[in-house]
Write a structure and sequence with these properties.
six-stranded mixed β-barrel, six-stranded mixed beta barrel, alpha+beta, 21 strands
Length: about 800
């Protein structure tokens, strides 16, 4: 009953000061809401185990070489890892980021993302179907019936959640598959597919001749008692034996296993923990600010405290009174913050541009709600104990003698310490935000090597049997290019096997090559290049600058023409240093025309990301090797206005061919920067709040000191002090807060900003310009926060000041 009575009294006291209550609730609820939302991300993405059976025993297998740290494995090599190692209960092939065309009667074809996996894929993960069944042994051999497992999203979106879909035949790429099951909603591996189908390899791919086709990865389950390091030693022995026996395909190639969780999360773990640390700083700053407000409020209640003490209230009762108000503020803020966090988490989960893995696992669950309660208790104690203890230790006799304006020992020092903490924490956040802003600015100004403006891009899925020869692919692409060129506002149209910044490329081949006349390289050291078939108009459509020689002509594009090549500057620098590559001949392990003469050199192109170094690339005439079908349309009008025209043209050419990934190149480049944009915006928001709260803290502390010393200022002015002297005195107090707080914050930033080094591009964690700008920013806002009360102090009327006393 005492607690209920105290809560009732605390609620009435807070209601009598609506401004203080509103400011405190807003500050705390925003801080608790942001902290809870980020913890929800950390909890769902990092802390929750993978939704697989004994996920700590699952590993991801990949090859590596001196030029590729995450190299794909050939199916034949993976078979050796499966049969010749002793560390795994099973090894299964996975190949994500594929696509199949879902052909529907009397409706346009749909393109579905797909993953090709071994028959034991689901069993090795320990995942069971929510409807029907998953694959069984033997369904990944050549003569097995064609079966498919749908994802939960595809089942609900394309089949309306119909339980009768199990056993139903569907047509994928002109082949009839039987739906045997629907996967549980949490399964989105590998590559967030909409369906899984068995990986069936031809005899050629499983022969020794197929060892140079590195196209798959693997997942495996460690045997009980086997450590990851022991498994890697086991893999290394097998990989070394393969490299020795087949040096042409695997010289210099090794194999390694990493925890599956590490593979899925990538570098997200470090980034999310850094964001969690940043939002925790915001919470601490908010608590310090509310503690300052409570100290001021406690001072205004000095006479009340004195009277209660004189009437017999002991120290514990006074502390309980203040802590009850703090707890009521904290728990109300936690409730409001949880609502805000729920909305923020929903927005994050439904977002498609954050680039955070396992985002679908993020929810407001019991652990998150428990965290919010802990925040409420912790923050309530953090900002409630200081004023409670301070008020309980006041000199009651002195307060009663001095009336309502009695002194409250130690409060000025306590407030100053709190403001110093706010400034230090805010400095760390502002430095981190400054580094990310500078980094993001560098990213947005990286030259991709082409002109992304006014460029519409889209892919067409030609994987059906209808397009299993070069002639039909060339006929289709020529028809679409011709129809697109006739659209008003279109300047140039090109077709290629791939394009830069394609999130799901149809073709992304790289291969080794030989330079005619050059010595035969040692096994495993042959030159390598990305290969990209393109139409003659590709270079002009993309805005690629021709540095030397010429591009392709229509006569070069004829299938029977002598093969010619255009290379990038990166290839010329790496393999022809100090030489003129024009006229040189290269022989590739690619396509029907592997040998070609270099006729031109174009600028370097960044294909996958603006953060990667341009790699050597070689362009072939498209009609010689028509693999994939990516279209690029240069426009004189708003490129977004042509999306409907693009769909109409493709449907008219062949309604069974789905067109997808339709958008502008600027949007594609923007999507590739989504992760950096998200973390930059998040930390910048935290830093802005921290800067505002720290500024208010400085202003509040100085302003309160001025109000308490009005009489002193009046006496100084009456004795001849100039207004300038008074202003300097007050501003010096602000400087005495800002400089130490800034110094502590800079020292903290020197160490803590290393946590976000993985998010930086072109900027060092100890960037001098960023640190200088942060110091200037705090000097400016701190100066303004100090000058306003200093100006008020300098205008004090001595007679009014002393009369008020």
């Amino acid at each position: 009953m005492d607690i209920v009575r105290e809560l009732r009294h605390a609620a009435r006291r807070l209601a009598r000061t609506p401004s203080f209550t509103l400011i405190s609730l807003t500050t705390l609820s925003l801080a608790i809401g942001a902290t809870t939302a980020v913890f929800s991300l950390v909890n769902g993405v990092l802390l929750q185990p993978l939704d697989f059976a004994r996920p700590d025993r699952l590993v991801y297998l990949h090859d590596f070489s001196s030029t590729d740290e995450n190299r794909a494995i050939s199916p034949r090599d993976l078979l050796d890892y499966r049969t010749q190692t002793h560390s795994f209960t099973d090894v299964v092939a996975i190949e994500g980021d594929l696509s199949l065309s879902l052909v529907r009667p009397s409706a346009p074809a749909l393109r579905l993302s797909a993953a090709r996996v071994g028959a034991t894929f689901f069993s090795i993960l320990g995942v069971k179907a929510q409807l029907g069944r998953t694959f069984v042994a033997g369904e990944d051999v050549g003569n097995a019936p064609k079966v498919v497992v749908l994802s939960d999203g595809a089942w609900k979106h394309y089949f309306a959640g119909d339980s009768g879909v199990v056993g139903r035949p569907i047509t994928l790429n002109d082949a009839v598959y039987t739906v045997i099951g629907v996967a549980p909603h949490f399964l989105t591996y590998p590559g967030n597919p909409e369906l899984w189908y068995p990986a069936v390899w031809s005899n050629a791919r499983l022969s020794d001749a197929g060892r140079d086709v590195h196209s798959v990865y693997g997942i495996a389950r460690l045997r009980d008692g086997v450590t990851l390091s022991a498994a890697n030693r086991d893999l290394a022995l097998v990989a070394h034996r393969i490299a020795s026996d087949f040096p042409k395909a695997d010289a210099g190639v090794g194999a390694t296993a990493v925890p599956l969780r590490t593979h899925i999360l990538g570098d997200t773990e470090r980034s999310l923990w850094a964001m969690f640390g940043a939002v925790a700083f915001v919470l601490l700053i908010a608590c310090a600010n509310v503690a300052n407000l409570l100290l001021v409020r406690a001072t205004s209640r000095a006479s009340e405290v004195a009277l209660r003490t004189a009437l017999g209230a002991d120290r514990i009762q006074l502390v309980r009174q203040f802590l009850t108000e703090s707890a009521l503020l904290a728990f109300t803020s936690a409730a409001l913050g949880t609502v805000m966090a729920t909305l923020a988490v929903h927005a994050a989960v439904t977002s498609t541009v954050m680039g955070v893995p396992r985002l679908q696992d993020v929810t407001i669950d019991v652990r998150v709600l428990g965290f919010a309660v802990v925040l409420a208790v912790g923050s309530g104690l953090a900002f409630g104990v200081v004023p409670a203890v301070s008020a309980s230790g006041w000199d009651v006799g002195r307060l009663l003698r001095s009336g309502t304006r009695g002194a409250t020992p130690g409060r000025a020092g306590t407030r100053s310490v709190l403001v110093l903490a706010e400034l230090a924490l805010g400095t760390v956040l502002l430095v981190g935000a400054g580094l990310l802003i500078r980094s993001f600015e560098r990213l947005t100004h990286v030259d991709p090597g082409f002109r992304p403006d006014h460029l519409v891009v889209f892919d067409a899925d030609l994987s059906s049997k209808k397009y299993n020869d070069d002639a039909t692919v060339n006929a289709f692409t020529d028809e679409v290019v011709g129809q697109l060129s006739a659209i008003p506002g279109v300047r140039n149209v090109a077709v290629a096997a791939n394009r830069p910044f394609d999130p799901e490329p149809l073709f992304a081949g790289s291969t080794d090559f030989a330079i005619d006349g050059a010595p035969t390289p040692a096994p495993g050291t042959a030159p390598e290049s990305r290969v990209l078939p393109v139409s003659p108009s590709f270079f002009q459509t993309m805005g690629l600058t021709l540095e030397r020689g010429r591009g392709f002509t229509e006569s070069d594009n004829r299938p029977d023409a002598a093969p010619v090549l255009v290379i990038t500057e990166a290839l010329a620098r790496r393999y022809f240093p100090g030489q003129d590559p024009i006229g040189k001949r290269l022989t590739f392990n690619f396509g029907a025309h592997p040998r070609g003469e270099i006729v031109g050199i174009v600028r370097d192109v960044r294909f996958d990301s603006v953060t990667t170094t341009p790699e050597p690339a070689t362009f072939f005439p498209f009609h010689h090797v028509p693999v994939g079908a990516t279209f690029l349309v240069r426009t004189a009008v708003d490129p977004a206005s042509l999306v409907n025209d693009v769909r109409r043209v493709v449907a008219a050419a062949d309604p069974s061919v789905p067109a997808y990934e339709i958008g502008t190149m600027n949007d594609a480049m923007g999507a590739s920067l989504a992760r950096w944009r998200f973390y930059t915006a998040l930390l910048t928001g935290f830093a802005a709040v921290a800067l505002l709260l720290a500024t208010l803290g400085v202003y509040g502390t100085i302003s309160y000191a001025v109000s308490q010393e009005t009489r002193d200022f009046g006496i100084r002015i009456a004795l001849g002090a100039r207004s300038r002297d008074v202003r300097q005195l007050v501003i010096s107090r602000g400087v005495s807060l800002i400089v130490p707080g800034l110094a502590v914050g800079i020292l903290g930033a020197l160490f803590l900003t290393r946590l976000i080094s993985g998010l930086l591009f072109g900027v060092e964690p100890l960037d001098p310009l960023t640190f200088t700008c942060v110091c200037l920013a705090f000097a400016v806002v701190g100066g303004i926060a100090s000058w306003i009360p200093a100006r008020r102090a300098a205008r004090v009327d001595p007679i009014i000041a002393m009369r008020s006393e």
